[in-house]
Amino acid sequence: MNEGVIMARVFNFSAGPAALPLAVLEQARAEMLEYQDSGMSVMEMTHRGKHFSAIHASAMALIRELMGVPDDYAVLLMQGGASSQFAFIPMNLVTDRNQTIDVVHTGMWSKKAIAEGRKFANVQVIASSEEANFSYIPAQSEWTPTPGAAYRHITSNNTIFGAEYHWQPEAGDAPLVADMSSNILSRPVDVSRYGLIYAGAQKNLGPSGVTLVVVRKELLGRNPDLPQMFDFSVQAEKDSMLNTPPTYAIYILKLVLEWVKAQGGVAALEQRNIAKADKLYAAIDASGLYSCPTRVDSRSRMNIPFTLADDALNAPFLAEAEAAGLVNLKGHRSVGGMRASIYNAMEMAGVDALVDFMADFEKRHG
């Protein structure tokens, strides 16, 4: 090891894969060559051995503890990313091709869920913010639910357009399914209000390669003829160990969950997330150069888009920000401008550095 190398870490505002807590990376580095007394890395060990079995069991227990998962729910660690769930969920929950899936359409990820859902059932868009470029979350009063729908699907936070639910939807007579990929563990959630919650790990839970699914057990086993790998009931029965799982991703997931607990749990992280978002939004709103396209009552705490008054300043902003150690701020083409993703692992110091840079840039270019 070259101990003379000075580590220069940037503030990473990527929407995903996203920043991980430094303490997690340091522990993973310390355990890279040998995990405990195993004589090998986690990446090298069998998933059936005692060391990984303990890692897996710890991750599962921490998910239940930190999210408050009731006993009548199964916790699954699936492969294929959250995008696979756009198909896996209708495969598991729809029992008749003539059934309807209700979707609240709030951006790209709900659009993908709609497209995949139509391969297995009718899909009804029961509310949408598309006419306003997905800049808000439609109120419950705007929903037009289908009686007897197989389930109702929402995306709890949209990474691209920066709109987030700040209220608990009522599903009515159908299970509520939520894609929580980009705000999982950022705030307390009453799991019992949902039929199924899913989230890709690479924003708030760990690295890419593993997807969390929390599903009410009474919803399992609706379609017994599914391929085993896609069948939630089989995955639950096998404790997500039907085949070789993404072992190292689950190990990092466990470390992140331990870090969340050490921070005081999800409620404590929520207060930090509120403070970070409030500071950045305040800087944007007080500016003459920057503006946020998202409606105030729907503004995300996790993904904050903002545009500059003159698009010609976008390239200089990004170049100067990167030189200052502030990276991955370019906004999605659907919105333009910039996007700062400030998930759980983003420290207040990163937000402070961004706010200071934005103020200095405005003085020089505004």
UniProtKB/TrEMBL annotation:
Cofactor comment text: Binds 1 pyridoxal phosphate per subunit.
Keywords carried by this UniProt record: Amino-acid biosynthesis, Aminotransferase, Cytoplasm, Pyridoxal phosphate, Pyridoxine biosynthesis, Serine biosynthesis, Transferase
Quaternary state and interactors: Homodimer.
SUPFAM superfamilies (UniProt xref): PLP-dependent transferases
EC number from the UniProt entry: 2.6.1.52
Residues given in the record as L-glutamate binding sites: 48
Family: Belongs to the class-V pyridoxal-phosphate-dependent aminotransferase family. SerC subfamily.
GO biological process, one term: L-serine biosynthetic process
Reactions mediated catalytically: 4-(phosphooxy)-L-threonine + 2-oxoglutarate = (R)-3-hydroxy-2-oxo-4-phosphooxybutanoate + L-glutamate; O-phospho-L-serine + 2-oxoglutarate = 3-phosphooxypyruvate + L-glutamate
A cellular component term, taken from the record's GO annotations: cytoplasm
Pfam families from the UniProt entry: Aminotran_5
Protein name: Phosphoserine aminotransferase
Modified residues (N6-(pyridoxal phosphate)lysine): 203
Location (main, coarse): cytoplasm
